[in-house]
Each structure stands twice: as structure tokens, then as C-alpha cells.
Amino acid sequence: MLNGKIGLAPMADYTDFAYREICREYGAEFTFTEMISIEALVRNKSFNMFPKEREKNIGIQLFGSNVDSFIKAGLIAQHYGDWIDINAGCPVKKVIKKGAGSALLKDLNKLGEIIRELKRFLDVPVGVKVRLGFEDDIAEKIIETIQKNKADYVIVHTRTQKQLYSGKANWKRIRELKRICEIPLGASGDIYTYNDAKILMNKYEADFAIIARGSIGNPWIFSNKNPDIDEIKKTILKHVKLMIDDYGEERTIRRFKKIFIGYTKGLKNAREIRNQIPYINSYDDLEKIVNELN
């Protein structure tokens, strides 16, 4: 399903349809939705975050902590994607306060139960995205729990929750975990080039890799391509237009600004352009600035 591939990681407030579509165009071999609350789905909300009908090779990432809600949400979500991904890795405080995300790594019995029940009730594959642990690195125990409960894959971001995004991801742990991992093992964390992903797969023995922050403003990372300035401009405007189709102009401009910063990275006049970003209020404003890129 995912072995040998490089895909787009789930990122809250980033990996909506437009973002996924642009990354697919430039080589992402699979994608994920943004994380979706199981409680929202149970209350008949967040359906707009599901993939569009024409999307293929896409996983729906769910987050929460209640086993029954996971089952109900999974039964809904399975009809909209190719597999379900359990978020047991998000380190953000507002998520872990609810017992979700990487907080599940403090209760492996519950994590195991969630996997087991989803596997029992759903008709699509179920995987898990985790970190090395909450405070301490207990990755071997985590892998054991995930395997024992018959998950179809596991993705490991090689930091603990306590580390958040500080320091460096410990890629060596992927190779160590591969020795005990009998299901496909994906790697995540500090993948900022196409070559980084290949190193994780070839040297550190990951079965597949997912790229998160390294793709912000750089969808070409999936194909190891160096775009010229005209292609960058064209891609920015296409990305924005896709978002406008879904959100309307005002909401799109607010949401796109942080992505636009990524697109300007490495450009000659990046600092000058970034100083203008707070004053972008419309598509016309954005287009004018894009045309100034060099």
C-alpha cells in the first residue's frame, strides 16, 4: 500500500484539498487529510474535511481518545478515503489535554483497544502515527502494542512529545525499530529534501516516508525538482485559486499567508516580499506581489 513511496504527511491547517492537489501534481505518491476530530464527526461536523471524490491514495487521519467515538467516526470516514490513520503523535497541548494525539502514548492499553476495535469494525486498513514516546523513548513498547493489535502500518516521528520540534529527529531509531517491526514502518521528522526521504528509506530502512514541514511552499520536494521563478509564480497562484474554490477569497487569503512565506524561501527578494504579506487582503493584492518575485 505505502511501501517504497514518499507521501505528504497530515498537517493541521495545511493539508487541505488544494495543498494535497498541488503536492500530488509534483510527485506525492500518497497523501493524508488534516487531522479530523472524532467527536466532531460523531456530531455530524467536519465532513468538509473529507477527501473529494476524485482523490486517490489518501488516508483520513482521526484524533480523539474515546474508543466508542473512534468506532463511530471510523465507520463514517471509511467511505471517503483509502485507509484510516490514528493520530497518536500530535504534541500540541490543546490536543493532548483531551487525552488525544501523543497523550495516547501514555496509555498503550487504550491505544491498543482503539486499533483493535477499528480493525474489528472497519473494512479499510488502519494505521497509526506515533512519536517515540511521551516523555521518555518507549518506542519498542509502542511498536509491540501496535503490532499485537494488528495495525496495517506504523509511522514514527523520531522525537518524543516532550521534545516537540526541538533538536534533531533521531533517524537511527528507525533502523533499530525496523529490527522488531513486522508491519510497514514509515519515517517522519526533519525531512527537508527529497534526498532526506531516500536516506531514511535506503540507509535507515524505513519502508516509506512522509514529508510534513519540508513541503510547505515546496511541493517540488516530492520530485526532487528545482523550479524556475515562472513555475513558482504559476504554482502559487494555482494553489490560491484552488483554495478560493473551497473557502472563498477572504478566508483563503487569511489561511494562505503562512504557506506563501514558504514559497518565498530562498528567493532574492524574500525579505522584502515577506514584509508585505500582512497587508495582503485580496487575490489582487497577492497576485501583484507574486509578480514581483525574483
TrEMBL record:
InterPro entries (UniProt xref): Aldolase_TIM, DUS-like_FMN-bd, DUS_fam, tRNA-dHydroUridine_Synthase_C, tRNA_hU_synthase_CS
TM spans (from-to): none
Functional note: Catalyzes the synthesis of 5,6-dihydrouridine (D), a modified base found in the D-loop of most tRNAs, via the reduction of the C5-C6 double bond in target uridines.
Enzyme Commission number(s) from the entry: 1.3.1.-
Top-rank taxon: Bacteria
Cofactor needs: FMN
Family from the record: Belongs to the dus family.
MF (Gene Ontology): flavin adenine dinucleotide binding; tRNA binding; tRNA dihydrouridine synthase activity
SUPFAM superfamilies from the UniProt entry: FMN-linked oxidoreductases
Signal peptide: none
Residues the record lists as binding FMN: 10-12, 61, 129, 157, 212-213
Ranges where the DUS-like FMN-binding domain occurs: 8-283
PROSITE patterns recorded: UPF0034
Gene3D superfamilies, per the entry: Aldolase class I (3.20.20.70), Putative flavin oxidoreducatase, domain 2 (1.10.1200.80)
Protein name: tRNA-dihydrouridine synthase
Enzyme class: oxidoreductase
Native source species: Marinitoga hydrogenitolerans (strain DSM 16785 / JCM 12826 / AT1271)
Upper taxonomic lineage: Bacteria, Thermotogati, Thermotogota, Thermotogae, Petrotogales
Nucleotide-binding is among the record's keywords: yes
Reactions performed catalytically: a 5,6-dihydrouridine in tRNA + NADP(+) = a uridine in tRNA + NADPH + H(+); a 5,6-dihydrouridine in tRNA + NAD(+) = a uridine in tRNA + NADH + H(+)
Alphabetical UniProt keywords: Flavoprotein, FMN, NADP, Nucleotide-binding, Oxidoreductase, RNA-binding, tRNA processing, tRNA-binding
Active site per the UniProt annotation: 90
